[in-house]
Design brief:
The chain has one domain: Rossmann fold (3-Layer(aba) Sandwich). About 30% of the residues lie in helices and about 25% in strands. It has seven helices and eleven strands. Strand 10, helix 6 and strand 11 form a beta-alpha-beta unit. By secondary structure, it is of the alpha/beta class.
């Protein structure tokens, strides 16, 4: 586990392919459920959409799937500015929100989006062998659940171990507080059940980078949750997991965390 004080803002140089700077395109509001097999509702048509930010050309690049935060009750899809012009394809995912649906449905939506990316990203110069899953807060929880609980992607005949890396920012590793609220359990009462990433720790999970804010400033013991997840993954024999604590930052620790995400993706995908 590593405690960092990160206050560096490196000059970002444009990435080049074949001696020329990469140019990027954005496609918005792509519906990611299969309309032929899943009955669509008006709410799904509004929420189950993703945006695709990708470099033009014919070079296959790593893919970062990003789930927004908001407690599973708020927020909207986004392409984080800090992930632009890094040589990646970035997918900003929207999903349905409680109380319009049960919070568990958010995991189903996240899984459907990941499955869509696996099956379609080559059309946008993304490499399906280099798909990284990330998100902040509730988005980090969704990233963890969709990948750690293999049963979700198995519904799409996909093995979650094909994910190249998992990078949750300050995500719950116990059962999410909105799911607990639906069950009449207060946010200060932790539980670990099948809807907790901790329940699914396993040796062969993808390489994982956990990032949280300062333990003294974080929300609801989020650092300690991630520290326990880190330790139990190590206990299972997982060999590629790191935990960073952003010293001096609270729950909204995304900006100092993004450079770590970028470095992690580059290190795992051999991007300069």
């Amino acid at each position: 586990m590593k405690k960092l004080a990160i206050y560096m803002f490196l000059a970002v140089l444009p990435l080049y392919a074949n001696g020329q700077a990469l140019s990027y395109k954005t496609i918005e509001n792509v519906y990611y459920y299969d309309s032929q097999t899943v009955e669509q509702t008006t709410h799904m048509k509004e929420k189950n959409l993703l945006d695709i930010y990708y470099p033009e050309g014919d070079q296959k690049v790593p893919v970062v799937i990003w789930f927004h935060g908001g407690g599973l009750t708020a927020g909207q899809k986004e392409i984080p500015t800090a992930l632009k012009e890094k040589g990646f394809c970035v997918i900003g995912v929207g999903y349905r929100l409680s109380p319009n649906i049960k919070a568990e449905t958010c995991i189903a939506d996240a899984t459907a989006a990941i499955a869509w990316v696996f099956r379609n990203i080559e059309r946008y110069n993304g490499d399906p062998n280099q798909i990284f899953v990330s998100g902040h807060s509730a988005g980090g929880y969704l990233a963890l659940m969709a990948v750690m609980d293999k049963s979700w992607l198995q519904k799409y005949n996909l093995d979650s171990d094909l994910v190249a890396g998992l990078i949750p920012f300050s995500g719950h590793t116990i059962t999410h507080f909105t799911i607990r609220k639906e069950q009449g359990i207060p946010g200060e009462q932790p539980i670990v059940d099948k809807l907790a990433p901790l329940y699914h720790v396993r040796k062969n999970a993808p390489p994982t980078l956990l990032i949280t804010g300062d333990r003294e400033k974080e929300m609801l013991g989020r650092y300690e949750e991630n520290a326990y997840f880190y330790r139990m993954m190590k206990v299972t024999g997982h060999q590629d997991i790191t935990l960073y604590e952003m010293d001096g930052y609270g729950h909204n620790m995304t900006q100092p965390a993004f450079p770590l995400l970028v470095d992690f993706v580059k290190s795992k995908s051999n991007v300069d």
